[in-house]
Structure formats: structure tokens, C-alpha cells
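Side project, low priority. Logging it here so it doesn't get lost.
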Amino acid sequence: MRILTIFSIGLLVLGGIACNAQKNESCIETESQINSIIEQMTLEEKFNMIGGHKSFYIRPLKRLGIPSIRMADGPCGVKNYGASTSYPSPICLAASWDTIVASNVGMATAKEAKAKDVQIMLTPGMNLYRAAMCGRNFEYLGEDPYLSGQLASAYIQGMQEQGIIATAKHYVANNQEFDRNHTSSDMDERTLHELYLPAFKTCVEKAQVGIVMSSYNLINGVHASQNHYLINEILKKDWNFDGIVMSDWVSVYDGIEAAKAGLDIEMPAGKHMHPDTLALAINKGELREEIIDDKIRRILGIYYRFNLMDSISQKTNINKEALAKTALEAARGGIVLLKNENNILPIDSEKIKTIAVLGPNAAEAVTGGGGSSFVTPYQKVSILESIKKLSGDNIQIKYSEGPFPRFLDQFYENTKFQNEGLKGEYFKGVTLEGEPVAIRQDQSINYEWTKDNLPEGISKNQFSVRWTGKFRPQTSGDFYFAVSADDGFRLIVNNDTILNEWTNNSEIPRSTILKLKAGEIYDVKLEYYQTWGTAAIKFGIGPFEKNHLQESIEFAQESDMAIVCMGFDKSIEREGIDRPYSLPQKQVDFIKSIAAVNKNTVVILNAGGNADISNWIENVGGLLHAWYPGEKGSEAISEIILGKVNPSGKLPFSIEKKWEDAATYNSYYDEDKDKRVTYSEGIFLGYRHFDTHNVEPLFPFGFGMSYTTFSYDKLKVDSKHFEEDDNVFVSVKITNTGDFRGKEVIQLYVSDIESSLPRPAKELKAFAKVDLAPGETKTVKMKLNKESFSFYDPQKHNWVAESGKFEIMVGSSSKDIRKRTFITLD
């Protein structure tokens, strides 16, 4: 069996021009300008440039004409600087399987970044979906490296064409949020190269992304920010990446090792790659100044490539309506119809005259998950409002929230403490020690200190607060006590600690219930500390609200259809923590209670992945997976329900029947608490696991229903035999055989019939989305090359394609294969 070894050829990019070995005059001039600046810089100035500035800036050097560069969080829009267009979460973009949609969202986000005078967007994310519980799954692009790489590249190209620098993150294998700063993702070389690196490689080589951000975790025992193999050997040498390698915020642990390993900028400040630390290392011969020069050269190279040295101000006006339209199209394309028993959807207005809209996510717009990606939207329209608006006077709507009190912004805003409020003592440092720098009375605790003012003498990072006061309820009964904060907090009532999260974390919501007596005075003490990132704390007390369970059941009984809006929100599914596998039991019980009295029950699910739908899916007639669909998501959901838009989303991950069936069941949690998670499933993740090991999923990778049907015909390949340097073109005819206009995602999988190493039963290697009117036929053409048939050989430390026979499969999901053929690699 002959082995075909694949090598990659990279290009140097400066000033927007690809520079190969025969450098043109523009490239030579740019390099000369960069070298001249470096020669004029002092060592201290170089050190200052490789440490972040004011949390979201790269420091300027005015005497040499180097501007200050501003960043903003993504990937759901432009965060940090007030309200912005809230786009569907990336998992929703992945579910669209549409590179045009991804490119348009990248382009629109860039336009808004310009309007906010932002030059670097910290997006896109492309860590793979390993398990439903990962708190940031909604920020990523699913379980498949090819799908993730193609969509991320399209997004990057759309963004960078507008002159905004994109950031591919988090490099690499940050696939869980629990203890992410200290846990090592351990895997063999083949798994690393076949699953977790390819999306980044695509973004570097195809999209020429400007920045790559390292992840929090360790990989095989070495932190990502100081991993020489990943940064210097693979990223910079093998892939010829000439851009900037940036750390995630507070993810550097050893400044000298990070500097030597290839990290170029430490964010949000040079805490470990500190001028004093680096200068001492150079003086002792532990670090060469040339390594620092290379970092400056990379930073300036990106500045020149994106024309930031000429004029830093790119501020432009934006068309909010146009951006909102992009957000709407993305939501329409990504929402997935998973169940539609007896064609319950779309709603037939001749038969359905009353609808009960129920549940916790009905009247509150759930636009995004929580953490650094959450964008405050320009507009928040709920599913309830959208259905009322789009259905007009034809359908009567009845609403009940069910037994689900909400602990969102209104709850905190409405909590006002009597008399003088709570006494707040503000301390420097995180230990509440020494004399307070400031003391003030706070009528309410609802702070996010990027927009609220801290007392004089207290900086946004490294401070702590103790609030004390009295609470006297007006009525007797059960009262909710809720706190949401970034970082640590603890709540004490009458000397009993009732909530305790005294740890570094992204914003975590916690709540409990106490039985209180009217007129009694309760001592309340809330302690809080802030270390870095978002400084925020919210505290609320309120009586247990009326239980609306019976009301919801009655509305469902009286209505022709029940639409139940369930799932998570930004308080539960968020950066810094992993969420539960299942929906809260109260939500599961509620779904079953409603379905028991109304057979036409449809669930709208908000989640970044699976939410163990297996324990209630059989009870309901319909299910729409709506993800976190952005500020226009409710409109898109309502359009789909009412038949104004045909759903076309497809799952970007597999949904298991039960957690035990998942590939990562025995390799996700750190069960022995040794701070190491072994990826024992290897390359058999997601559909690769289900298909290869004959485990039946509940819903397969690539699955999604439509209101119409599609036929596949005349699968052809332009050559049944091809050589190693050939491209192979595969074509298939797709016909809309139903009555609705609709879009179909054609998925092409490749299977190696005989291989020297175990390979998955099939692997996604191409896809296309096509729009068809009823009765219309189009021919879809997809390209394969030698990489499409290759695997990573750990003995050769390289990609190889073995000669032999391969099966080409085209279908509507990884399980629904419509046409097959064979080709031979000679």
C-alpha cells in the first residue's frame, strides 16, 4: 500500500499582501519599516507592548507613531461598549451549515466594531463540542472539525475584509469550563491533530486570521499559554502563522516560559510577562532579546496589514436595521426542527384558533448565554410578543409563566432596602482586611462596574466589599434570596451562611429560600471580592411568587395548541462553569403536565447543546431547538411556527439517547480529582463514535426537519481514479419534492474501506446548502482533495493518504445517506 504524505505551504502576509520567498517591493518596504521601529525601541518599550493595557487595549508608543489598539469581546456581537446588535450564538450559526450566513455575521459584526472604534474582535471560538455540559458550547461550532473550520473561516474572512482583526480562540482543547485554569486536557498525538487542531489550521491557512488566542487549560500537562509544541512548533513553524498569539485573560502562569514558547501578548496586562521579570531573564541569559523582537515584529506586522499605522480611527456610522436583518437571517437559518409529529407545525390557522404560550422563556427574550460573550441587545422581543404580533387577530393567545420565578435583572432592580439601605465598606485587596477605603449606603446591590461608579480610591480589579444591614418583611412566608456575582461572594442571614461561592469565577447565580415572619428584623451581611475581568454583583430578596402551574394547565386544556418555552439562560449556561446535563426537574415535570392535557404541545428549547431531551421528547408533538438566537431570535421562531419561514437548520452535534451512550461518558469529568482529563475516546467523538461503534443516537449529527421534502439523484464523481495531486469533483441533483420552498443541507462523507490504522466509519468532508422552490431541481457540486482522504499517522508525525478504495456518501444527515459511490486513490 503506497503512502501519500501531505505537506502544507504557508505564506507570509504583510500589508495585506501575501509574501512568498520572492518578496515584492511592498513587502520589503513594510519589513524595513518594522525593523526600523524595532531598532528605535528601548527594551522597556518592547516589554510594555507585549503586556495588555487598560484591560482591553494594546499600549501605544506615540513617539514612534504606534497607536493604541482597542479590543472587544465576541462572538455574539460587539460587547464592552454599550448596547450592540445581538447575533445568534455560534452554535446556532453552526446549525445553519451556511458559510454565507457566517460570513455575513462576521462582516456585520465588523461594521459595528468600526462604529465603536474597535480594531480587534475576540472571536470566533472553535473548541469542539465534547459533552452537553460545557458552559461555553453555545460559543463554539459543534463537534466536527471540518464544519467548525469552514464556518469559522467564512466568519473571519467576512470580518477581516472590513478591516477588523479576528481572533481564533481558544487554542486549544478548552472543552470544559470546570476548573479550566488548572485542568489538563490529555490526549494522544493523533487525536490532537485529527480533531482539535484542524479548525485552527483552516483559519490560519485559509482565512489568514490575524490573532490566535491561547486557552486557559493545560494540554498534556503544559499550559496552553506556554506550550512550545503547540505555539512555536505547530502554529508558527508548521502552519507558518505570522500573526499574533495572545493569551486569554489571566491565563498566563509563567512569564518566562510563555515568552519562550511563543506567546506574543499577555492579557489583560503584563502580570507574568512583566518588564522586571523579562529584563532579569535576559540579563541572566535565560531569554534572548531576539525573542522579544519577534513578538514586536508580529504585532507591527498585523498593524501594517490592517492599515492601523496610517489612521487608527475607523469610526463609521452603522445601519442598525441592516445589522438586525443579518441577525434575523442567521436565526432563521440555524433554528432546528427536531420533531414534528403529524405535521403539527406549521400552525394551520384554519384549525388552530387558541394557543397557550407557557413557560419561563416565553415572556423574557433569551438572546444569549452568559459570560464574556453576552451582548446587551438594542432590542429584546419575547416569543410571546412575536407570536402575538405575527398571528394578528386570527389566533387568541393565552400566557402563563408556570411555576418558574425568574431571577433576572428585574428581580435585582426591584429589590430596594428599607431606610438607609445597606452599609457598604469598600476595601483594597480581596481579603476584606484593614481599614475600608470608603464607606457608603447602597439602596440596592445591582452593580456592573464597567458602567457603574466605584468609590474613589477603589480600582475595578482587586477589591472587596462588605455590606451589612437589616431586612424586615411585610408579610410572612417563603422568601427568595438570590446573588449573582463575578467573582466570589457569601451571604449571611442571622449569622447563618446561606449562600457561599467564595471562589474565582465568571458570574455565577445562586439562590435559596428562607421562611420569614412579618415584622421581624433579619440581619443581612453580603461579602464580595473581585480579582479580574467583569466586576459585578447583584443581590435580591423577594417573596415567593404565585405558583402558576394550575393556571398553565387550565390554559393548555382550553387551547388548540400549547407552546412551551423552556431551557436555560445566561444565568445558568455561561463561561466559567459547566451546566447540568438535564433541564431542571421542575421544567421536565411541567412539559409532561402540559403535554398530558394537550396533544398539540410544541417545545421551544433554549440551550447551547443537548439538554437530555430523551426524558420528555416522547410526550410532546413538536420540538424546535432555538439555541440562543440573538435579538431577532423570537421573530425567527415565530415565523417558523406560523409557516412564514421553513426551518432549515441541522444539528452540528449528535444527541445521545442517554448520557451513558456518549463517547465522552467516561472521559469528561475529573473523577479522581488529579486535575487531568484523559480524552480516552480518541478520534471517535460524536458521530464518529455512534456510527463506528453502532450506538444509536436519539438524533444524529446533521439532522434537521423541514416542512418540505427533498430527493437526491444522479450522484457522480468526475473521476473514479485519481492521483495524489488531483482534485475530485462530486455532483448530485437535489429536487424539492414538497409544497414549501425550503433549503436543504447536502452532506458529503468519506469512508476509507481499508486502512492501516483504525478510522471512523465516515467523516464529513464537504457540505452545501441549497435553496429550492417546490418542484425545482439544482445540481450541487463539491470538491474533494487529498486531505479529504487523509489521516494523521503518529509514527510519521504527519498526515498521510493511503492508496485504495474509498466510499463517497451523500445525504441529509450522518445517518440519512441517500446516495453512495466509490472512488480509488492510486
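Brief comment: The chain is about 25% helix and 25% strand.
Revisit when time allows.
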